Amino acid sequence: MASDATNDAGALVRELREISDRHSSWRNRQGTEEVNGARAVEPSSSEEESQANVFLSRTNENRDLNQYWYSKNTIETLCNAMREGLKISKGRRVAFLSTPSLYFSLSPEEKEHCAVLDYDTSWESCSGYHFYDYNYPTKIEDSLLGTFDLVVADPPFISRSVWEKYAITARLLLKDNNSHIIATTVNENASLMESLFGCKPALFRPSIPHLVYQYSVFTNFPSLALAVKNPELQE
């Protein structure tokens, strides 16, 4: 078993390195200048902006857990897309699967109706935190099952086997098959996102400053927030 785990880890490293090489010419750039006549979505409130800044300034990425935070602008944009999804479904509960930077950037009122499921136990004192290990995708607290209108997912690895486990968890958390999904992963996983969630790639792509390869955003609902290019990226 230990040998199998080592081989799987080696395969994941090789996979990430290959994708990194293909995307090595892409670089993030700062600024809010217009891109194709459109601007980045503005945060919905100064409180949200403050919460995003607080999280990013106080929370270090744990590379042992493969943590890479979105930029502040990306956090705000994804949170706005989340709100659009909730408006469509007329819901208010969101499960953040391995996306703590988004959960902790919500307003206190929004967090009351949401949950963050993550392997990192440094947040276990937070009322909305629930431990999650994707190796046990069905090990979810009964109180969470079938209670969410939307799931946001960003696994620590991009392989099919990992995403299939996250899909199992997402289906358990969501109220029904018409609930909404926001997923971020490499564009090479586009067909996988379609088959698992019925998600399509958005025009907006996230800035993840310390990640060397580029992610895309996939949703199964229309989003104005994600319908413009990210001005932080040179594309």
Automatic annotation (TrEMBL):
PROSITE patterns: N6_MTASE. GO terms for cellular component: cytoplasm. It is found in: Cytoplasm. The keyword tRNA processing does not apply. Pfam families: N6-adenineMlase (PF10237). GO terms for molecular function: methyltransferase activity. GO terms for biological process: methylation. It comes from the Eukaryota. Residues 21-50 are annotated as: Disordered. Keywords: Cytoplasm, Methyltransferase, Transferase. This is N(6)-adenine-specific DNA methyltransferase 2.
